[in-house]
Design a protein that fits this description.
Blueprint: E1 2-4, E2 7-14, E3 17-18, E4 24-28, E5 31-35, E6 43-51, E7 55-65, H1 91-110, E8 132-144, E9 155-168, E10 171-177, H2 188-202, E11 216-223, E12 229-235, H3 240-253, E13 259-264, E14 278-281, E15 286-290, E16 293-297, H4 307-321, E17 328-332, H5 338-343, E18 349-354, H6 357-369, E19 375-379, H7 382-385, H8 388-394, E20 399-402, H9 411-420, E21 424-429, H10 432-442, E22 446-454, E23 464-471
Length: 472
């Protein structure tokens, strides 16, 4: 162990096993060290960033040898950009680790009786799988050195006219200037570079994240399997002469854009909440399909980011719901209604509840788009909406489908689900750790009967998991 001032560096440490959240672990003198940017089998020097009595965290300073499982990343930006964490790992190994993450979280946190998890459903497409992507324009670039095979070494930033790409991990004001991203199919890179180069040519300012000012701010690109695609350019200044010049330039190069929008954002954050995107050309939205179901998607709509794997995830939820055509299904955290609508052909009735008003309006539009008279959506908190009078009017649930955010379900909602006492609950989660916590709270009344992990985001640490529960 080497020390320099307050720095602690552990030398020649073998990375032994996978942990969670994309980290691996080593054991040094009885202490567990969680390390980013490494895989089991690597031997590294570790700089400690957090040290507790029994555990610590750190990142690799130097690689002495590489794991036999390590491969060369296919993207030149890997290790600098935070979009992917595991390109140095073969996809089948990624799936093994993600399966282990689900099992470890459920066993360690839930501490309940569990069936064996079914084999993870991997993605057929491990590149160009995102239907939506967001880029940032900024005045500062993240410029690290990038030795071959290493992952995310330290770097620095420098001033420049403008860059376009992703926020560097851990550097809120610095952007990784992206030449080619493999997360979304073309013309995503062509659109981003065309806007960037035109702005540089015209001398238009890029957004200064430190001082919160500048003309060109962010960009959204959404590509649908239907062939429709949407571009929303977000500007930090309300200058219609410059805005129109950018929009007209893009239309000249990409005349097949289905919907071109612009949004003026002078707030101190990049959220579109409270803003109104304006359609410059086209209908202002796109239509995507999952099986035979159509979904209207606007610039502020939520939709599964991986269309093909989203369909696989929903198939699992539908299978776990065990629908016969007689069931009233309650879709909690229904968003824009996609899961409920996808499951509707096997249900007698679908009741969707979501706290976000705009999402419910989208859900109602999607129900009409698919000619569904048996899907009904309500805005508000489940605790307030699902009363005895509501059940008298709409029927008590035979099946509950819940798809909460990463934080999991509120304890009051878990209590409400117990009160509703549906025979079957299908819990779709993007965070197996909070899912495990919730399963523990449900255990008194519900037994876990099926577990199915689904990989939605290859080369990242993220994993979805679907659990079926039955009333005891």
């Amino acid at each position: 162990m080497a020390r320099k001032k307050k720095d602690i560096v552990l030398q020649n440490v073998l990375i032994e096993d996978y942990a969670a959240e994309g980290k691996s672990l080593a054991r040094v003198e009885g202490k567990v060290i969680f390390v980013e940017r490494v895989i089991p089998g690597d031997t590294v020097d570790i700089r400690i960033t957090k040290s507790k009595k029994d555990w610590g965290e750190g990142f690799p300073l130097k690689f002495h040898s590489y794991s036999k499982n390590r491969i060369e990343p296919f993207c030149s930006h890997f290790g600098v950009c935070g979009g992917c964490q595991w390109q140095m790992l073969p996809y089948h190994k990624q799936l093994e680790f993600k399966q282990k993450q689900v099992t470890d979280n459920l066993v360690r946190i839930a501490k309940i009786k569990l069936p064996e998890a079914q084999p993870i459903i991997g993605a057929a497409n491990t590149e160009y799988y995102r239907n939506k992507i967001e880029y940032t324009f900024a005045t500062e670039q993240f410029t690290p050195e990038r030795p071959s095979k290493t992952a995310f070494p330290e770097g620095s930033g420098e001033e420049h006219l403008g860059y376009a790409g992703f926020h560097a991990r851990g550097f809120w004001s610095k952007i990784v200037d992206i030449e080619k991203c493999y997360l979304q199919a073309e013309p995503t890179n062509e659109v981003r570079l065309a806007i960037k180069n035109f702005a540089l040519q015209k001398g238009y300012s890029f957004y200064d994240l430190r001082n919160q000012q500048g003309f060109l701010r962010t960009l959204q690109v959404r590509l649908c399997d239907t062939g429709e695609w949407m571009v929303n350019i977000i500007f930090g200044e309300d200058d219609m002469i410059k805005i129109k010049s950018v929009l007209n330039h893009i239309l000249e190069i990409f005349p097949n854009i289905t919907s071109l929008l612009y949004t003026i954002n002078t707030k101190r954050n990049d959220s579109l909440h409270g803003l109104e995107p304006i359609a410059y050309r086209g209908k202002g939205y796109v239509v995507e399909k999952l099986e035979e179901f159509q979904f209207k998607i606007g610039p502020k709509s939520f939709f599964q980011t991986n269309t093909k794997q989203g369909a696989e995830l929903y198939k699992v939820a539908r299978e776990f719901a065990e629908l016969t055509g007689k069931e009233t299904v309650y879709d909690l955290y229904c968003g824009t209604g996609s899961i409920g609508i996808f499951c509707s052909k096997g249900a007698y009735k679908v009741i969707g509840v979501e706290i976000i008003d705009e999402a419910i309006e989208d859900a109602k539009v999607n129900a009409r788009l698919n000619g569904l008279n048996k899907a009904h959506f309500y805005a508000g908190d489940v605790i307030d909406i699902c009363t005895d009078d509501f059940f008298v009017q709409h029927g008590s649930p035979n099946v509950i489908i819940t798809d909460p955010p990463r934080a999991g379900m509120h304890e009051k909602l878990i209590t409400k689900i117990k009160e509703m006492a549906a025979p079957t609950v299908v819990y779709v989660s993007c965070n197996p750790a909070t899912q495990a916590r919730d399963l523990s709270l449900l255990d008194e009344q519900y037994a876990v009967t099926k577990i199915q992990p689904v990989d939605m985001f290859p080369h990242t640490l993220h994993i979805e998991n679907v659990v079926q529960l039955k009333l005891r």
